[in-house]
Write a structure and sequence with these properties.
The complex is a heterotetramer of chains A (194), B (337), C (183) and D (574). Chain B is an all-alpha fold. Helix content of chain B is 65%, strand content 0%. The chains are: A mainly alpha (194), B mainly alpha (337), C mainly alpha (183), D alpha/beta (574).
Amino acid sequence: MTHYLFIIIGAVLVNNVVLVKILGLCPFMGVSKKLDTAFGMGAATTFVLTVATGASYVIDHLLLAPFGLEYLRTLSFIVTIAAVVQLTEMVIQKTSPLLHQVLGIYLPLITTNCAVLGVPLLNVANKYNFLESLVFGAASAIGFSMVLILFAGIRERVDGADVPVPFRGVAISMVTAGLMSLAFMGFAGLDKYQ
Amino acid sequence: MDFITPPYLTQNVSVRRVMLQVLAALIPGIAAYAWLLGPAVLMQIAIATATALLAEAAMLKLQDKPLGPFLGDGSAIVTAWLIALAFPPLAPWWLIVVGTAFAIVVAKHLYGGLGQNPFNPAMIAFAVCIVSFPALMSQWPPINAQANFVDQLALVFGQSPRLDALSGATPLDALKTALKLGEGSTSVATVTADAAVFGRIAGHGWEWVAAGYLLGGIWLWGRKVIGWHVSMSFLAGMTLISGALWLWNPAHFANPLFHLFSGGSMLGAFFIVTDPVSGCTTPRGKLIFGFSAGLLAYLIRVFGGYPDGVAFAVLLLNLCVPIIDLYTQPPIFGMKK
Amino acid sequence: MLTAILIMALGAIVLGAALGYASIKFKVEGNPLVEKIEAILPQTQCGQCGYPGCKPYAEAIAEGEADINKCPPGGMEGVRKLADLLGREVKPLDAEEKPKQLAIIDEQLCIGCTLCIQACPVDAIVGAAKQMHTVVESLCTGCELCVKPCPVECIRMEPIAEKIDNWKWKYPVFEIKPARRAA
Amino acid sequence: MLQRLFKFKGGVKPATNKAPSVQAPIRIAPIPPRLVVPLHQSIGGQPTPLVEVGDRVLKGQRIGAADKWVSAAVHAPTSGTVIAVEERVAAHPSGLPTLSVVIETDGQDAWIERHSFDHASLEPERVREILRDSGVVGLGGAVFPSHVKLTPAASVPMDELVINGAECEPFMTCDDLLMRERAEGIVRGVAIFRDLLRPKRVLIGIEDNKPEAVAAMQAAVEALGENFEVVAVPTRYPAGGAKQLIRVLTGKEVPASKRSPEMGVQCFNVATAYSAWRAIAFGEPVISRIVTLTGNVEQPGNWEILLGTPMQEVIALAGPKADTNRFVMGGPMMGFDLPDLSAPVVKATNCIIAGSPALFPPPAPEMPCIRCGACALACPHELQPFELYWFSRSRNFGKAQEYNLFDCIECGCCSYVCPSHIPLVQYFRFAKSEIWSRERDKNMADAAKARFEFRNERDEREKAEKAERLAKAAAAKAAEKKPAPAETPPAPAEAPAPQTVDAEAAKKAAIAAAMERARLQREAAQPKNTDGLTIAQRKEIAEIEKRRAPLQAQQQTTPNADAAQTQNSQKDQQ
């Protein structure tokens, strides 16, 4: 049990995909202007990432490994993820047009969200089993959503600040992201304590 | 006729007065610090203050803002003093200059200056420096050796070999290292038995500095400059988790009193988490903010990789402030259940 | 090599089939976006955007054909709202921003030709042939469409005067920060 | 009887400065040579003028009739001659003009015939009508028509009637003096309100810094044998806000989204009760009010002043000192600078304060907000003013509304305590009026859209009908033409002439008929488009028609110069 706990703490806080691993910056900067969109994007990514880790584990172990085709891993993962994203997009468009509108171009962007490819590859590198992979994928996604939402909250507030003109917009957001990353360094070592 | 918008009457209060009271409340702690650990801290305060005012003036100039009211409001000086108190007193002069300048320029003025920074500037300075210069930020003067002022000045400004003179660590760090090296064979009791280092409660000398901060904090609270919510919940959070672990395994975890009076606990509780700009503003939000900060500070200082956790805990909670505030809005008049 | 090709082909077929099924099952009709865009537009129907009315412009925006900064009556405020809704970048307005206006017919000059009545998209001009026409102030949207058709140039646009009913409290301007940098 | 008091959160305690103006009794101001009576003196519709230039008016004569239910009549404050009905500068922070009746007084002060009523024998509806036509409005400063507030909610029983004599604004003492000197009239007025609303209890709340007023009211209540409770409430601004006083006396909190009768409580100012009694018992409409003149003046005090008296004459009564640099209407917390001293005293004028740099020092420069939360602690409506400020300042009005901007009563407590000296109330007023303006624009846009769509539909329909008509005409023509050759062969020589005449006549008739039909259609269609219009808009159109009538007549008598063009335009119109 503690093993899984450490995987979760590690993925959510200590090795946060965005702030420590610096993966998935594109939606992190793009969809964090408003809290509502951040919630939607977080939910969509969590779903996609969890499904993608599961699907890629299955593909890796049942399809690629038995035939010694590990060299096709990146390619097949990308294809799988793209399909999962497409499916998610269609479902969201049907069930929640508003969310679809809000997520707009960012939903297909999940396809190229490096976090979504990165996490399954990390799973393979860490030699996680199926359950561990799922936990790691979900925890990474929760970590992503969490910082996305916190970031959106701060951005909404900074939006009203008298930021010097050259730093308005993306520039100050980058600074904020950097300072967030600095704060997250405080977690360093927490997953190593035995 | 001057243009006045109603109300025509106002209370005689100002930002400047608030900041000056905060500075006054820091004095007992600083006095104890300088008395017990040498006067170098005064030097550091001077360096930090000068840097802060210069950086503030430069940033105001760049943005065409008037210098007078903003330099006079005292907020930059408060930041500077907190940085000086959080840094090791014998850190080289340039370290504190870098930290203070970063705090004022990046953490404060890039966000529009006074009142608009989402992060606590002093804690940003601390975090930046401890991440960038971990060795320098962990060298504290040996507690017993009362170095004279000239020696300390030489350390702050000179090139004298640092490591020989400064092998010390804070009691907090010393305990952590001892426990780690002991691999379970040592217990808290045996490590802290050395009263020369660990004093009666939480480190010889350090406990008096912390008591000074406590005194200043209570005075601030009495003057209604700070509320009780954040400070008390911060201390409560720290007490609760340290108490629980201490009761569970007293050999491995120090008692709550040790944690409350060591490191940046007291400074943090009364002068850092109470920063209104980067903190929560709703009553419930303040409780959550303080409690979580206390909890996190303990977790990071005991389980994490840094000697103290207050700075990171405060920064992490700063991140959460907009969300906490959003979900803890108090009910308004006529909308209560 | 062959297995690799086969397996990839198999994957492609399975995923393709799933996507194909989903595209039929979750098909979405219409575009709810148009209504939202139209709600932001000022409904002056002035055609200054190059489209024959607010709705066609809204449709064009939703389709991605038109830019969001083509609506002068909506002003920068409108551009900002559209940018917010659509997640696009705010652009400066593609025209000069004017205060809200009102058409006024000079009753001495009007010859009663009814051309302006036909031009008015919101029936805000009353009058009949050979009789002098007048603008119903509270219905006029200030679209300027009636100005050009008038053969005797008796219609002029005037900014709406400030009255106690529409008077607004001003932004407090006596901040110590200089206002000129406000973007 | 011991009354349990409740508390409201927040509030401030500024120095009251009431002592100077309570030394002298209420004095009657002289009749000025000219009165400027604005028609719009209450919340609601603007009354329509009933007099024209040159009319002689008597004291108490109605000069403006209530426009609709939420509106109140306006009366001539004294006898004289109407010399103008025009736009005059109003007692409003904007300094903009409003439609006013200017009366040259004749000094006779001759009353119009007055009728007293016995409200107990009248239908409640009739009593409310009398109050409306007597111009009785809330004299605490909000000037909401009182008769509207005197209708109990259908479903909620009326528990308490709260009478507001708190007068929490510093400097102001007009209600204090009124209660000291005319307590009996107030109590009788309260009795009228009581009879209309039938509450279980009547509570008269007076701040405890006015012991004389409390004693006087208590004595009056006892003398008249009423069972009203006179309660001294703790002095804390804004205890005199209607919602705060209701809270203190009954424990009920009326949110911004509800009206107080829905919670079984209603609140009136003491001066309103007094004026209602004068209206019912003596037939005297509201033509004067008590105004506190105080601040930087030689002779502070309270005066009964005719409505419409220009401010400069009012101020002269008190004698402003030399260093006076401003005149504030209302109290120092919620009042505003009078933009122009020719503005008249109106029903909302409860106090005029002469200000000097010593009395109201210019504010310290505005510093950024440090989110200290002092404003949130002071806010009697428990809002988060610093958040409202943050969003109002950056013009993020949607967010400001999410933080309940419209629950703000603009009491000024937040600005009073702000260590950064931010004019918070000003920001909130700015945000509120921007939001209102946007709402107006939005409503206009919606109306414009509806009218545009209607017009398009009509155009389509007319086009379709025209096409149909043309098709029919063509078919008819074809039908006509076909049999014609069959019949005419015997007389090919003479036939063509009459036939062409016939055809031409038929064509003309067809065109005339079509035009007639089109006209009918137009007439049928046009009124529909005026259906959705407000009364005001219809009135506007009617006025335009009226203005056009003489011109039209003129046009009809003079021979039309350009018949061809008219014809063309008429065709175009179809």
